[in-house]
Amino acid sequence: MDVLVQLILNGIMLGSMYAIIAVGLTLIFGIVRVVNFAHGEFLMVGMYAVYLISKHMGVHPYVSALPAMVLLFAIGALVQRFIIQKLLNADEHIQIFATVGLSTALINGALMVFGADLFSVNAPEVRKTIALGPMNVLIGHIVIFSAALALVAGLHIFMQKTVLGSAIRATAQNRYAAQLMGVKVERIYIISFGLGAACVGLASALIMPLYPVSPTIGSYFVLTAFVVVVLGGMRSMYGAFFGALIIGVVDSLSGYYIAPDLKEVVYFAIFILILIFKPTGLFGFGRGTE
Amino acid sequence: MKVILGAALAAGVALSSQTALAQVKVGALYPFSGGLALLGDESFRGLELAVDERNAAGGLNGKKLEIVKGDAVDPNQAVGEARRLTSVEKVPVVFGSYSSSISLAATQVAELAGIPYFEMGAISDPITERGFKNVYRTNPTAKDFANKIVDAVTDAVAPALKTDAKALKIAIIHEDSLYGQTVTGFQVARMKEKGLNLVETLPYSAKSVDLTPVILRLKSAGVDVVLQTSYQNDTVLFFRQMKEQGLKLKAIIGAGGGYSLTDTMKAIGPENFEGALNVDFTQYKTNPAGAPGINEFVAKYNAKYGSAPRSGHSLANYMGAKVILDALAGAKDLSGASVRAAMMKIDIPSGKTATGWGVKLNDKGQNERGSPYIMQWQKGDLVTVFPKEAAVADMKTGGGAP
Amino acid sequence: MSPHRSPFNPLTLLLRLTEPRVYVSFLALSLLLVIPLLLDSPFAIHIFVTICVFGALSTAWNIVGGYAGQLSLGHTIFYGVGGYSAALLIQHFGLSPWLGMWAGAILSVGIAVGIGYPAFRLRGPFFSLATIAFLEVIRLLVIHFHGFTGGSAGLIVPLKIGWAWMIFQDKFNYLIIAFGLLVLSLFVSWAVRATRLGYYLIAVREREDAASAAGISTTRVKLIAVMISAALTSFVGTFHAMYLTFLEPGTMFSLSAAIEIAMFALIGGLGTVAGPLLGTVFVVPIAEAARGWLGASANGLHGLVYGTVLVLITLTLPGGLVGTFGRKVAALIDRLPGARKPEDREAPALRQITGTPGETVLEAKNLVMKFGGLTATDNVSISLKRGEILGIIGPNGAGKTTVFNQISGFLIPTAGTVSVRDGAGMVQPATPDDFARRGVGRTFQIVQPFGKLSVIENIMIGAFMHHHNVDDARESALRVAHLVGLHTLKDVEARNLPIGDLKRLEVARTLATEPAILLLDEVMAGQNQADTRKMVEIIRAIRGTGVTVVAIEHNMQAIMSLSDRIIVIDSGKVIAEGEPETVVRDRRVIEAYLGEDFVHAQGL
After folding, report:
1. Is C397 found in the same domain as C312?
2. What is the least distance, in Å, from the CA of C169 to any CA of chain A?
C-alpha cells in the first residue's frame, strides 16, 4: 500500500514536470494552431542558457529563470515572425516540415557548439527531500508542482481579465473576425508563440537542477508532452495540467507494475487511443483535432 | 650541360629512392561524430599514440605509418566508410571501432574484401563469432564482463560481507540498448550456472527521466546486491533517486560505461558514490607492476593532448594497437594470410602490457587473455582492487548508498 | 469508335518510349547504373546503392504522403518489418530472402491496414504524431522481446554468398537489385498517378467532403495507397538488411530515417512521380560529401545543414524542385523529337437514365435533425418525382442546407428515413459516397473545388465514378465541360477561377457523375444576370436529359421560372408546398420572409 502511495505521489511530481512543458505547447497549438515539433528543442536551448548563466554569473538556476524566459520569448517570437508566419496559409505538411527542420537544426547546432557531453548545475538544496509521512518528496519537484499550478492559474487570469488576453482568445476562435475588430493578428501570434516558448523557459530553469542537459534532452520530454497535450484536449491549459498529472501517474505505475522499459508503450498506446476515439481529449475541453 | 643533366638525374634518382621509403596507410574507423563521439575520439587517441610511438621507432619495417580516418555513426555509414577506406584509400588494414554496431557492419565488409580488421574496444561477442578469418580483437568481450561481475559477487563481495553468495538477493538493472542487453544476457546465464539468487531483472530506457519505479521494485524485493549496466545519465539518476528513496544496498557493481567516468562521480557526489564497484577495461589508478607502461602512456597522452585521459578506452586501444603493430612488423607482408599467421603467433603473458592483459588469440581471432578488472570508487578516485598484481587498494565493503 | 486501351497495354507502353519525356527519364535513370560502372569503385557503388535505396523508400512513401496527403513520419515501421522478417526467416528456417521479402511485405501490409484504418481519421499533424507513436511502440516492443528479435544486440545475417542470399562479392550486383527496386517503386508510383486511383487520392487529399460527394470512399482509397506503399517499403527493407548484414532496432525502426525519406520527397516535390528521387539525388551526395570533408571536425554540422535546408525549402520552394522548375524543364524536354499530341477520341456513351417519368425517385420521411437543444429540421417530408425540378426556398437559417445534407448522406438524421430509387425498389444509402453512387449528386453551398487540379481534372473526378479509364473519364468530362460552357478554361487551375466559373465547375463535376438526381445548393448566389441566365439554361438542359433536379435558391426570378414545384422551409418546418404561383402568394410564406408587420400592413 505504501508503495502504491509513493508511486502515485512520484507520478504527480513527475507529471507536474511534464505539465510545465506541455502548457507552452498547448498555448501555441491553441492559438496559432501549429504543432510545434521543435518544442523539446526550446527546452534544450533554455536549459543550456540556464547552465551558462548559472555557471558564469554564479547564480542559482532558479534566478536564471527570468533571463531564460526572456530569451525564449524572443526565440519564440522570432520563429513565429520569420518562419511560421509565412506558412500560415500553406498546407499543413509544409508547417510540419518547417518545425521538424527547425528541431533537427537546433539539436545539431547544440551538438556543434556544446558537444555531446552532459552538463549539470550544482544546486544541492533543490535535491533535498522532505518527508511527507513515510514518503519522501524532492523539494525541486514541489517547486515545479507549485510553479505549474501557478503558471496555469496565472495564464487563465491573464486570458480572462486582460485586454490582451481577450484579444488572444478572440484570435484563437476566429482570426478573420478578430482582424475585423481591429486586432493585429500577426502581433497576437508573435506574442502567443513567444509566450508559449517563455513557459518552456520557466520549465528549463526548474528542471536544470534535476537533470543534466545534452543536445538530445528535448527528445526525452517532447513526445510525452505531445501525449499530454492531446490527452488534455489540445486547447485547454487546465486540461494539459491534469493530463500531465495523469500521464505522470501512469508512467510511475506502469513502470512498477508492468515493466520499466514498457512504460512508454503504455502511454503511447493511450495516446493513440485518445487520438482516435476521443480527439477532444479525456476531459472534452478541447475542440478536437480539426 | 651534360654535367648538369647528370647531376639532375642523380638527384632525381636519389629523391625517388627517398620516396621509395614508402608509407603504409592504416584505416581508423570510429564514431567521430554523433552521440558516441566523445569516447570514439578517446579510443582513437590510443591508436594515434601507438602509431606515433612506432613511427618514432622507425615505422613498420622502415615504412612510416599514416592513419586514414573513417567516421561512422550507424551501420549504413559504417559500410560506406569501410568501403571507402578499403577501395578508395586502399588501406591494407583497418583499426577500430568502440561501437559494436559499427564494428559488426564494417567487419563484414572487410571480411568480404579480405582486409584484416583489428577491433580494440567494442565488446559485443558476435564480432568474433561469425567464423571470419580476417577479424581480430584484443579486448575482452561482454561475456568476460558479465562473468567477471558475477564472479566478483561470489569471490569478493560475499566473503567481504561474510555471507554465502547464494543467500544474497541479487538484481540486475540495465539500460536497454546493445550494451545493457548484451552484458545482462551473459550475467543471467552466469548466475544460473553458479546457482545465485536473481530476484529481479529490470531493463529501462536509457532516456528515462525517472527511475523511481525501478528503485521501488528493488526495495519491495529486499535486494542486497545490484548489478547495473548503464551510461552516464542513468547512473547519475539512479544514484540520486536511490538516495532520495532511501534505498540501501549491501553492494553495487557497474559494468563500465557511466561508472568509469569522473564526471559521473562529480555529478553524484564522491560521498554518494563511495564504495561503488566497477568492472571495466583498465583505468588509470592501477599498479604499474601489473600493467607496465601505463604511467608512461598517461604521460605521453598528457604531452600530446594537454589533459589527462578521459577514460580507459584510449589505454585499451593503445595497448591493442601496440601489440598488433609489433606482430605486423614480423609479418611477411600485409596480405590477409600473412597477417593471420603473424596474429596467431602472438603469445604475451598476462601482466606484461600497459593494460595488464596478456594476448593469445583463439582461432576465431579473439584474445583469450584479456580481462576486465574490478575497481572501486574510494574518496572520489576509481582505484583498481583486483587482480592483486594490478590493485592499488583493497576492496572496501558496504558499497552503494552511504 | 476507338477501342478502350489501358495505359498498361504493352504496345501502348512501347510506343510511349518514343516520347521525349519517357526516353529522357530512362536515360537519366540509367545514369544511376552507368556512372558507378564507369567509376568502378566499391565506394561509389555504396553511394549509389544508398541513393537507390532511399530514392525507392521516398518514392514509396510519396504514395501515401504526397498523393494522399497523409504525412506519415513512421514509415520505417515497414522498412524494419521487411528487414527483420527476412532475417528471422533466414535464421530459423534458412529461407532465402527472396521469399522472406514476400513474408515481410504481407506482414507490413497487414500492419499498414491495422494502423491506417484508425489513424486515417486524423488530419495533418495529428496523423503524423500518431505514426510516430506507432513507430516508437514497435521499436520498444522489438527491444523488449529480445529473445525473439535479438533485441538491441541486433540480428546478424549469416554471410552466405550468392544470388539466393542477396550477398555478393561483386558489389555491382547489390546495385542491380537496388536499382531494380527503385525502378519498381517509380513504376508503381507512376501507375498509381496515371490511373483513377491517383486522381482519387489527390481529390481526397484536397477536399475530403467533395471527394465523398463524387462517390469516392475515402478510407478505402487511402488504405489501398498505404498498402501499396507498405509493401514497396518492406521490399526495400529486406534488401537493405541483407546489404548491411546487421540489423538493430534503432537503425531499422529509425525515426530520423523516417523523417529523412519524407524530407527527400518534400525537397524534390511532394505528390509528383519524379520528386522523391530528385530530392534524394540532390541531398544524399551533398550529405556524403559534407561528411567526407568535414568529418569529425564538425560534429553535427551535417545535421545542422539538413535541418536548415529543410526550413529554407519550406519557406522558399514549397513545391519542391519539381514544383518550381518542373514546368520549364518539361517544356524544354517536350521540344525534343518524338512528342505527340494526344489523339482525339470519341467520348464513351452517356448512361441512359431509365425509369418512368413521375415515379418517386427519392423519399424523405419525417426527417428530424437535432443539434444539442436546437431542432434544425422539424418533421420534413419530401417526395421527389422523376423528371421534375423542385425548388426549395425559405429565409436564411431556415435549415434548407441541413435538409440537403440529410438527403445526400452528409448528416444522419436524428429521426426519419431517406430512401432512393435503385432499379425497381428503394434503398437507404448509408454514407455520402454511397448516396453518390446511387445517383444522388450534390453541389456545396460554399464551393469546394480541388484547387490544384485543372478544370478538366476537377470534372474528371466526377466522371471517374462511371468511367474507370483515364482517357474515357477525360472525354466524358470534356463533354460536360462543353455543356456548362467551361471548355475554354479546361486547363486552368481551379484556384484561379472567379466565383461564377467556380459555381459552374461545381455543377459540372457533379454532373459528370451522371446522377439521376441533382441537388443544387444556391448555385446562382453571387452571380450577375448573365451568369444566372446561363445557369438557368444549363439546368433546363440537364432536366432535358432526364435528370431530376432539386435546387435551393434565393434568386426568386430564377427559381420561379425554373421550378415545377416549390417547397418553402422556415425554422426547420415545411410551411408551404405547391406550384410557384400559389406558394409565392401564400400568407405564411410572405410572413416568413417579410415579417408579420408587412403582412398586416398589406392587409393580408
Report:
1. no
2. 37
Residues C385 and C525 grouped into a single domain: yes
Domains along the sequence of chain A with CATH: 2-277 (1.10.3470)
pLDDT tens, C545-590?
Answer: 888 999 998 888 888 888 999 999 888 889 888 888 888 888 888 8
Cell of C303: 545535421
Cβ–Cβ < 8 Å for C465, C438: no
CATH of domain B143-280+374-400: 3.40.50.2300
Phi, psi angles (nearest 5°) of residue B210: -150, 120
In a domain, C345, yes or no: no
C446 shares a domain with C330? no
Domain boundaries in chain B? 2-140+291-371, 143-280+374-400
What are the backbone dihedrals phi and psi of residue B366, each rounded to the nearest 5 degrees, phi first?
A: -95, 135
Domain range for C566? 360-601
What kind of fold does domain B2-140+291-371 have according to CATH?
Answer: Rossmann fold (3.40.50)
Residues of chain C whose beta carbon is less than 8 angstroms from a beta carbon of chain B are 41-43, 45-47, 50, 140, 143-144, 146, 151-154, 156, 158-159, 169, 171, 240, 243-246, 248, 250-251, 288, 291, 295-296, 298-300, 302
The CATH number of residue C118's host domain is 1.10.3470
C11 domain-assigned? no
- What is the DSSP secondary structure assignment for residue B85, as one 8-state letter? I
Per-residue pLDDT averaged across C533-551, rounded? 88
Mark yes or no for CB contact C124/A92 under 8 Å: yes
φ and ψ at C104, to 5 degrees? -60, -40
* CA-to-CA separations, B236 to A118, A120, B190, C591, in angstroms, rounded: 11, 11, 27, 80
Same domain assignment for residues C230 and C311: yes
Which cell numbers in the block locate residue B322?
Answer: 601496440
Q: Determine, yes or no, domain membership for C351.
A: no
CB spacing of A105 vs C304 below 8 angstroms: yes
Q: What is the pLDDT of residue C1?
A: 38
The C-alpha cell 601507438 sits at: B50
CB contact under 8 A, A101 and C308: yes
Amino acid identity of residue A120, one-letter, is S
Give C42 to chain B, closest Cα distance, Å. Answer: 6
Percent of chain A with pLDDT over 70: 96
Q: Among C334, C352, C386, where does a domain finish?
A: C334
Binning pLDDT at 50, 70 and 90, where does residue C596 land?
Answer: low
Cα angle C30, C34, C35 (rounded to 5 degrees) comes to 115
Q: Would you call the peptide bond into B92 cis, given omega within 30 degrees of 0 as the criterion? A: no
* B2-140+291-371 and B143-280+374-400: identical CATH topology: yes
- How many domains is chain C partitioned into structurally? 2
Both C515 and C457 in a single domain? yes
Reduce the DSSP state of residue C192 to 3 states and report it: helix
Q: Is B248's Cβ below 8 Å from some Cβ in A?
A: no
B 115-134: CB under 8 A from C: 124, 126, 130, 132
Q: In this model, does residue C338 exceed pLDDT 80?
A: no
Pick A98's closest partner by Cβ from C118, C132, C311. Answer: C311
Q: Inspect the interface and report whether the beta carbons of C248 and B41 lie closer than 8 Å.
A: no
With CB atoms and an 8 Å threshold, state whether C299 touches B32: yes
Q: C333 or C104: which carries more pLDDT confidence?
A: C104
Residue C475 lies in a domain: yes
Quick one: average pLDDT of A132-148?
85
Against chain B, the chains showing at least 3 CB pairs within 8 Å are A, C
Neighbours of A113 (CB within 10 A): 12
Tell me, yes or no, whether C160 and C201 share the same domain.
yes
Which residue of chain A is at minimal alpha-carbon distance from B263? A118
- Residues in A touching B36 (Cβ below 8 Å): 116
Residue of chain B minimizing CA distance to C303: B34
Give pTM, 2 decimals.
0.86
Question: In the Cβ-directed half-sphere of C336, how many Cα atoms lie within 13 Å?
Answer: 13
| Whether residue C277 is found in the same domain as residue C400 | no
Contacts of A94 in chain C (CB under 8 A): 266, 314, 318
pLDDT band at C300 (very low <50, low <70, confident <90, very high): low
